Amino acid sequence: MIFYFYYMYVYIILLDLAFICYQGMVSLTISAILPKLRPPPCQNGQICQEADTGQLAILYISLLLTAIGSGGIRPCVVAFGADQFDETDEKQKTSTWKFFNWYYFCMGASMLVAVTVIVYIQDNVGWGWGLGVPSIAMAISIVAFVFGLPLYRNMDPSGSPFTRLVQVCVAAYKKRNLAMVSDPKLLYVNEELDASISIAGTLLHTKQMKFLDKAAIVTPQDFTESQSKPNLWRLNTVHRVEELKSLLRMGPIWASGIILFTAYVQQNTFSLQQAKTMNRHLTKSFQIPAGSMSVFTLTSMLATIVFYDRVFVPFMRRFTGVERGVSFLCRMAIGFSISVFATLIAGFMEIKRKNVAFAHGLTDKPHETIPIMVFWLVPQYVLHGVAEAFISIGHLEFMYDQAPESMRSTATALFWLAISAGNYMSTLLVTMIHKFSQGSDGSNWLPDNNLNKGKLEYFYWIITALQVLNLVYYLFCAKFYTFKPLEVLVDHRDKGDRKGHELELGTRV
């Protein structure tokens, strides 16, 4: 679906993806309303009837449509929203990083509504309305998007960047035996050829990965009398070579986010299991659903975003001189550090939970409520929310800012890919712990039937150790990271000057 972005206008893609997602949500709603599309409700004392093949097919197709639609909307809408600000305009330039803050704030607010209001509707009114309300909201958003079309600033498509990346690789391989030129200024530059993919500025030559520079070495075979443009499978411009270099340089820092999301996902797995065993009663008749503990994460994340934008940035700007307060690399480092403390504290909270269970003779009674308030878990949830406000938004900023101009939707898609990879990493880690911690009696650190007899704190501390190593790895990558050097055309005519070129070396960091 991302490939499609480069051949059509982005708002058409977003509209198509929104309709796909909407179709999936409507199908889910209908399956919850019509009795024939779902198994009958379970009766007390009777075995629940399983869904038949047709009912499962409708469910899976609905989920698939929703996943495809949301998977395409998320990266495209971030890039599309940020593209509404003109980076060549000094007044709009600083608005881009603010957009990421408030985009993530709105997304977090919607998730907070989902785990509170929507869950309440599902539990107390019915799944028809519980799924129907989000479907109605999705329909309203599509209508609002359509009516806003005349107001959008749209970037014209300029061909597939993936083809350009392959062309650079092929050209560099074909010229692998050529000697490198003595002066980088001799490498091929063609501003007219790159005009459609360098609106915000032209990428300049960097010294890393010199083997790729061979794709820009000019030879007599690259041109023919009948061709006005070179054969791009043999010769590429410096700008196109630097596009590939930019992506390769981003890789190590992108990968550092995987471990963070591995830690973050535990809130919906083992932290949830911890909450289920603890006292969640606020009154005699009401108790907090274990799944609603994520409210503390979302609330702290939203509060941190507001604090960051309104207090932290203006305060730090006085000391750093950076318009956004601190660089996005520094912002990510702060998030990594906070996340380390979140999992470290989670391990100690698990020890306390098990000590209380032991003191009351509940170690062998996994279904009994341990007399310890669930609010002991709040610190780890809150710290995860604060960490996410720093690192996730910083990660998005980094991917968008440092990606080649024509690949920003792909770069932001990599952010969501890191979240996916973190979930898979968590599954792999749990599988390995099950295997290597298994005793002769079949027990392991993470038992399925009795968490009180497990060693969940060891699991949290393993993740803490991995995060410490990941933080060291990230700091090393950040220290030696080379920001893309961008030569932009700056208009000084409002000051009585002539137009001129200005070099921006990581100017938005």
Automatic annotation (TrEMBL):
Keyword Transmembrane: yes
GO cellular component annotations of the record: membrane
Keyword Cell membrane appears in the UniProt entry: no
Membrane topology: Multi-pass membrane protein
Localization per Swiss-Prot or TrEMBL: Membrane
Pfam families, per database record: PTR2 (PF00854)
Main location, first listed in the record: membrane
TM helices/strands, residue ranges: 6-34, 102-121, 127-152, 247-266, 286-308, 328-349, 369-393, 414-438, 458-476
InterPro entries assigned: MFS_trans_sf, POT_fam
Keywords: Membrane, Transmembrane, Transmembrane helix
GO molecular function, one term: transmembrane transporter activity
Family: Belongs to the major facilitator superfamily. Proton-dependent oligopeptide transporter (POT/PTR) (TC 2.A.17) family. Belongs to the major facilitator superfamily. Phosphate:H(+) symporter (TC 2.A.1.9) family.
PANTHER family: OLIGOPEPTIDE TRANSPORTER-RELATED
Protein name as it appears in the record: Major facilitator superfamily domain, general substrate transporter
Species per Swiss-Prot/TrEMBL record: Cynara cardunculus var. scolymus (Globe artichoke)
